[in-house]
Write a structure and sequence with these properties.
It is built from 31 helices and five strands. By secondary structure, the chain is mainly α.
Length: 733
């Protein structure tokens, strides 16, 4: 409050900042502006430019906010930087005026000038951040956890160097990781759990380092074992990003991605700023990157509710160990999910209020009945209203606008969770809840016909039908796959049951308000299933959006109220160990289905560079294309087809004439046609029982003896150009 009074008494004179952090960021911002202008694109410089971009514009805003939590301050700084990139990218892509470098330079110069010549706000609140043990407790035992983390990090790096990166089986990476990898994970996990359950919780610095290393190992190991992004569905996102960067605009007639281009335009903008216009250069880092950002946001969210380190570190651990969904990859939904968490964090920090009278009456009645109320927790939540409402309101609306322009489902999940809370007065001003609904509806209006005719707005108003919907392309599960699916169900059920018990325990302790808010945010995503199955992924999305709030409930179950020091640590340790075991087994087992080989990427890049408008790329498979065809900026100009129906009959001989006859309506007379054989196509077709395994070698042998030219041979991928009798174009008069 004193900071606000001091801020109001500042004179209008020009003040140059003297804060060391401000001065450092001003210097880095100006250096980065110069590097962007001259176009330096080395890897180290690109990483430096990205970090500075995600810091300087955000810090120019965050430094003016009143006293807030340090974790929230760091999270807001990065998210604002990404949001500025999204707004700049959207503006340029929608108008067709694509000039990323000059715009980036101008934004950085303005941000550094604002930091330099404007007074800063209050310092972060560090009332519960014990960054290092006191001098009296510094002994060798204080350094043991750091030595363990250092040893674990060394063992992890060593394990990756000796991991077999050859062909995978049904066990995925579980059978490929050496024993030393599992020892490294166990050491880091044990350090995290010790820091939480010990009589005195470990310092913030210690826990931050341990959890950061745990997240990096769990969410980064798989990607570091490949030279290319590992998930096949990543490549269409890379293609759309590259198209926007190359064309300098969006084309809504192409696909749904160009109609919701928020993530792609932001990524294309940042790629140009870094000097890497091809998203393939950095897409693989999205998985550990989004995982770390989301962990930081969840930490900030729970610290906005609770002052107890045991609760917020347990919440973060549960979130890390129970997030089996695998949605951190390079995608619009990952970007929108992070912005969604930021919206919730902003509301919890700045817009908390006393609810309407009927709700307040219930609260008072229950508190009197219990004859207790944990005032410190309630005060922590309500204190967010002291200042920052205007900034928070603008931020929430802008973030919802970016989410609405980036992903089709996420803004409505935000509405399901936040609109009732605003309506009941838990957050104010109450009109923000209705604005959150209006923004995606307004954005949907120009896309209404496209969505309703192409996808359908609703799958039917049947909760159970949408919850049990399965796609036709779903691969039959192997015995190991069924075991993995059972592990997912057990892990999810364990988190859900413990969370419900935590809500009940906290409610019985007299904490009504925050319990209602958190439990509602965990339950509200379920209402998506009243109208959408989301292509069979509805349950996955619901679990993902509920997980942060379920994790808080789990922490409440262990640590709410008086702590029984004998039972709670044992229960917490056992539960977290079970989650770690289940997560490792379920997350790394399906790698066979997720891995994309470097050979496929090289072949796909070659094709994207060579194709002309109306050319045809032909797969022998059908259904989901395991070969990542859509990978570059030319993805809209060519077509794809399948030979699966032609090859179903063993009597059909694969030849150029047979292909031309089979695809007579798909191959223009002047177009080129390429036939692709890849091991991933074969595996997919065999797993789905669409083609006999013997078909593939026979078909390729027959085709190679006809009028074809092998234009690509990357070991696991072969591409043949059909030497057709192409009709010549008529001469111009």
């Amino acid at each position: 409050m004193n900071a606000l009074v001091e801020d109001k008494t500042l004179t209008a004179r020009l003040v140059v900042t003297s804060r060391p952090l401000d001065c450092l960021l001003v210097f880095c911002g100006l250096v980065t502006a110069v590097l962007i202008a001259i176009g330096d694109s080395t890897s180290a410089v690109a990483a430096f430019k990205l970090v500075v971009w995600l810091t300087v514009p955000g810090w120019a805003v965050v430094r003016r906010l009143p006293v807030i939590d340090p974790a929230a301050r760091v999270a807001w700084t990065g998210v604002i930087g990404a949001s500025v990139a999204a707004l700049a990218g959207l503006a340029m892509a929608w108008t067709g005026q694509w000039h990323p470098q000059p715009v980036a330079v101008a934004i950085l110069v303005l941000a550094t000038a604002y930091i330099c010549f404007s007074p800063g706000g209050a310092s972060p609140n560090r009332d519960h951040a014990r960054w290092w043990p006191g001098a009296r407790s510094r002994s060798f035992s204080d350094f043991v956890p750091w030595l363990i983390l250092g040893l674990a990090a060394f063992m992890w790096v060593f394990a990756l160097t000796i991991t077999d990166t050859g062909p995978l089986d049904d066990l995925g990476l579980l059978s490929k990781f050496p024993a030393v990898w599992y020892v490294a994970v166990s050491l880091v996990f044990a350090t995290c759990v010790w820091g939480v359950v010990a009589r005195q919780v470990a310092s913030t610095l210690m826990m931050s380092a341990a959890i950061t290393l745990l997240v990096t190992i769990l969410y980064g190991s798989a990607g570091l074992l490949t030279n290319v992004p590992r998930l096949p569905w990543t490549y269409k996102h890379i293609a759309v990003t590259d198209y926007i960067g190359a064309a300098g605009r969006v084309d809504p007639s192409l696909d749904i991605y160009n109609r919701w281009p928020g993530f792609f335009s932001a990524s294309a903008f940042l790629g140009e700023v870094m000097g890497h216009p091809d998203a393939l250069a950095y897409a693989a880092w999205a998985e550990p990157g989004f995982a770390l950002v989301n962990v930081l946001l969840v930490l900030a969210v729970v610290r906005a509710i609770s002052r107890k380190p045991r609760i917020y570190w347990t919440t973060v651990l549960v979130f890390v160990l129970a997030n089996w969904v695998g949605q951190n990859y390079y995608s619009p939904q990952a970007f929108a999910y992070s912005l969604h968490l930021t919206i919730c964090l902003t509301a919890l920090t700045f817009l908390g209020a006393t609810p309407i009278q009927p709700v307040r009456a219930i609260e008072c009645w229950w508190m009197r009945r219990r004859e207790q109320a944990v005032e410190i927790e309630k005060t922590r939540f309500v204190a967010g209203r002291l200042a920052g409402q205007v900034t928070a309101t603008v931020a929430i609306l802008v973030l919802q606008g970016i989410v609405a322009a980036s992903h089709q489902l996420t803004p409505y999940i935000a509405v399901l969770g936040l609109l009732p809370l605003f309506g009941l007065g838990f957050f104010r001003p109450r009109w923000i809840g209705f604005a959150l609904l209006a923004i995606p509806l307004i954005y949907l209006i120009p896309n209404w016909d496209y969505v309703t005719t192409t996808f359908g707005l609703f799958d039917g108003f049947s909760f159970f039908a949408n919850a049990t919907y399965r796609t036709e392309d779903q691969v039959p599960l192997t015995d190991v796959g069924r075991l993995q699916e059972a592990g997912i169900m057990v892990l999810s059920a364990l988190v859900g049951i413990l969370a419900c018990l935590g809500y009940i325990r906290r409610f019985l302790n007299g904490e009504v308000r925050t319990t209602l808010i958190v439990s509602w945010l965990a339950i509200s995503p379920l209402f998506v299933l009243l109208g959408q199955s989301y292509g069979g992924e509805g349950l996955i999305r619901i679990y993902l959006f509920a997980l942060p709030w379920l994790a808080i409930g789990v922490a409440w179950f262990f640590w709410s109220g008086p702590i029984p020091m004998r039972r709670a640590p044992l229960m917490a340790t056992a539960s977290l160990a079970a989650m770690a075991f289940l997560f490792t087994g379920t997350y790394f087992q399906p790698e066979l289905e997720r891995r994309v080989s470097e050979d496929e990427v090289i072949a796909a890049k070659w094709l994207d560079a060579k194709v002309r408008p109306d050319d045809l790329i032909i797969e022998v498979n059908s259904g989901f294309p395991r070969f990542p065809l859509k990978i570059g900026p030319n993805y809209p100009i060519y077509e794809t087809a399948s030979l699966a129906d032609l090859l179903k009959s063993p009597r059909n001989i694969l030849s150029v004439s047979a292909i031309e006859k089979h695809l007579a309506n798909d191959i223009p007379s002047t177009a080129k046609a390429y036939v692709v054989f890849s091991e991933s196509q074969e595996r997919w077709a065999i797993e789905k029982d669409r083609l006999d395994p013997a078909v593939f070698p026979r078909a390729e042998r027959e085709l190679s003896q006809d009028r074809v030219e092998k234009v690509v041979d990357e070991g696991t991928v072969r591409v043949y150009l059909l030497l057709r009798e192409v009709e010549s174009q008529p001469a111009a008069p």
